[in-house]
Amino acid sequence: xxxxxxxxxxxxxxxxxxxxxxxxxxxxxxxxxxxxxxxxxxxxxxxxxxxxxxxxxxxxxxxxxxxxxxxxxxxxxxxxxxxxxxxxxxxxxxxxxxxxxxxxxxxxxxxxxxxxxxxxxxxxxxxxxxxxxxxxxxxxxxxxxxx
Length: 147
What we know:
Order of helices and strands: HEHEEEEEEH
Distance between the termini: 75 Å
Largest sheet: 5 strands, mixed, barrel
Strand order of the largest sheet: 2-4-5-7-6
Radius of gyration: 22 Å
Oligomer: single chain
Structural class: alpha+beta
Number of strands: 7
């Protein structure tokens, strides 16, 4: 084998290795990405039916129900226009309150109930994730009520 062919072989193998590594990294990132959806988008069928995603909005006032052990929780997340019931087992963040912003990660089960694996509450009165703020504005426009 001539030096030129040997060099071309190494360059080709190097490019194949880089392409394989890139494909593996992109595949791993794609399988771990969770997109944000509002209750209106979920009920419109825009959210994945089988995959995990994030649901965001406000915790509906009066919807929080605790199980006997205090770890089984049920509450409703709303964007002003639509609501989705949520089930969660675990400890809630200290800032979790009815009427406040929340983002829950998990899966839609039984067609209508969201089973959460993680609950995130907004950290102060002035901050809300841009996606959640946009979803609440869109929900208010669809509802026709000024906010």
